[in-house]
Amino acid sequence: MNISDSPAITLAPNTIGITVHFGEHGMALLHKIGQVLTTDLTKDLKFKKNHEEDLKQSTFIDQLKKRRSIYVLGKRVHLSQVYLAELIQEAVRSCPSAHNSQSTCIVILMGDAHHHFWNVVKEVQRKLVPAHIFAGAELKVDQCSAGFGTVLFYEDQQIIQQLQKKIPFDAAEFPVWSEQVSGMAQYAVWTCLADAGLGASLQHYNPSIDADISKVFEIPKHWLLRAQLVFGSIEEKVAEKEHYKDEERFMIYA
């Protein structure tokens, strides 16, 4: 190497330090080192980002797995009613819907309203279920009443009818899509509650309770009840879920 291409080191006057002067080859060497460092840092950042995304995906699957049908519920809930109400509403807001119909409507019942709802359900059941087997039906209703709250899922029939008129070609499909929209909302709320440490189970006492519940809670006439999600503290450990064989359920082509 020519001496002129080597870095020259001089002491700056009246200072404690070193000033380094690089020739043309020295600057080229620094440039290459910078490229290597930048490449390595970029790879590290990309790897870290991909790893974090993998963790996020894994966490989301874990959240889905927390959602189970839990029937033995209690009132030992440490989250505020305000927080739970907003959590449930945000879950529904975040759900997709056919043609952005947003047809899912909900009624959130906690405290006395929750108990009143299940008392109404019990009285309706008393009229419908034969006396000699009513004790079993009553036990199931009381089990729901023991929970902390209930979410009623409705589908706005007015919105569905308007879409049927607007897009007559798909008129027959909108009621089907409405059920799918409601199912997604139910699943989203259920999963959010499970992730918050609460148990829940989905009930279907409709349509026998529709008229009485609509009267008690002043439900709009064009709202159609589809399901009831009762939730609360988990008072009994749930058994491991058994799955059918993957080859019986899934087909993958690539």
UniProtKB/TrEMBL annotation:
Keyword Membrane: no
Keywords associated with the record: Cytoplasm, Oxidoreductase
GO biological process: one example: cellular response to oxidative stress
Compartmental location: Cytoplasm
GO MF term list: oxidoreductase activity
Pfam families attached to this UniProt entry: Nitroreductase
InterPro entries: Frm2/Hbn1, Nitroreductase, Nitroreductase-like
PANTHER family: FATTY ACID REPRESSION MUTANT PROTEIN 2-RELATED (PTHR43035:SF1)
Name by which UniProt lists this protein: Nitroreductase domain-containing protein
Organism: Acinetobacter johnsonii ANC 3681
